[in-house]
Every structure is written in C-alpha cells, then in structure tokens.
Amino acid sequence: MLPNLIYNLKHAFILTFLKPIRHGRASRAEFWYANMASVICTFIGYIILKIADNQGFIVYYITLGMTMVMSIYAYFCGIMLLRRRVHDYGRSFLFIIIIYIAIWFLNFLISTVITTVSLTLLSGSFLTFLISNAIYYGLFGIKKGDKHYNKYGLSPYNNVNFRPLISKSGT
C-alpha cells in the first residue's frame, strides 16, 4: 500500500507541477493525488519558512519571495489540472470561470449577511472557507467523468498511470 501511495504522489507531482499537461483529461485519482502533493509541498514550504525565520531578515525574505513565486506557479498548474478535470466530464474551461464567479458571489453574500446580522457563532471567513471547499471538491473531486471518448480526448480511466492502493484480493 505505502509503495503505491508514494508512486502515485510522485506521479501526480510530476504530471501537475514538473511537466504540466494542458490538453486532454484528468481522472479523479490524478486530481486527488495532485491536491495531496500540493498540501505536502505547502507543509514543507511552511517548515522551510520557519527555519529561515531564525536565520535572519534577508534570508527570511529571500525564502519568502521564492515561496511566493512557487505558490503562483502551483496556482497556475492547479488551474491547468482543473481544466483537464472538467474536460473529463465534457465541460469547457468556461465552466470553471462560472463556478469561480458563483463561489465569489456566495462568499460575498455570506460575508454581508454575517456582518449585517452580527453572527459571532461562526466567523464569516471560516464559513465561506467551508462552503467554497465543499463546492470545489464536490464538483471537481467527486463527480466521475465520462468513461468513453468525448470531444476532449480519450478517457483517463483506460490509462494505468496510478496504481491501486488496495488490490482486488484485499491484500
């Protein structure tokens, strides 16, 4: 199980960040492993920043600048992955833009209501974070794509890029 998990994370990292693919389709497995690799890289970047914080002013800000550049690069790689993910179920890139605008509007609406009503039980930013992530992962990570060829290419499910974590025999 662990060797397959490490292989899948490495493969998702390479496909998403080192050799980003702009065309075609991405499976749910590629989406989840790429997000997991992104979280691991963010955690490592946080640790490096904490270590650099003790090394002095200049080292910290150089490290912070490099981290910001890598974050911007990772954001655009994530957008390319999302593009391929929505291609998997036959949608265009315009679908992502519409979803982002809808999430932004929902965040604005929730923040306005919470500010107006003065709800202190849940902060507005935490609530919008929960709703935004539920929409994001619900639409892009859970919905299964087309099993056959669509206008964006062959099905990624026929491609054996990712190894199963648990074999069919249960071992």
Question: How would you sum up this structure, described in words?
Answer:
This protein has 171 residues and is mainly alpha-helical. 70% of the residues lie in helices and 0% in strands. It is globular. The termini are close together. The model has no long low-confidence stretch (mean pLDDT 76).
Short description, anyone?
With 171 residues, this protein is mostly helical. The protein is built from 5 helices and no strands.
Observed structural traits:
5 helices; 171 residues
Topology (SSEs and partners):
Blueprint: H1 2-18, H2 28-53, H3 57-88, H4 93-117, H5 124-142
Q: Report the helical percentage.
A: 55-70%
Low-confidence stretches: none
Give the total of beta strands.
Answer: 0
Largest sheet: none
Radius of gyration: 19 Å
State the distance separating the first and last CA atoms: 9 Å
Quickly give the structural class: mainly alpha
How many DSSP helices?
5
Give the helices and strands as they follow along the chain.
HHHHH
Q: Report mean pLDDT, rounded to a whole number.
A: 76
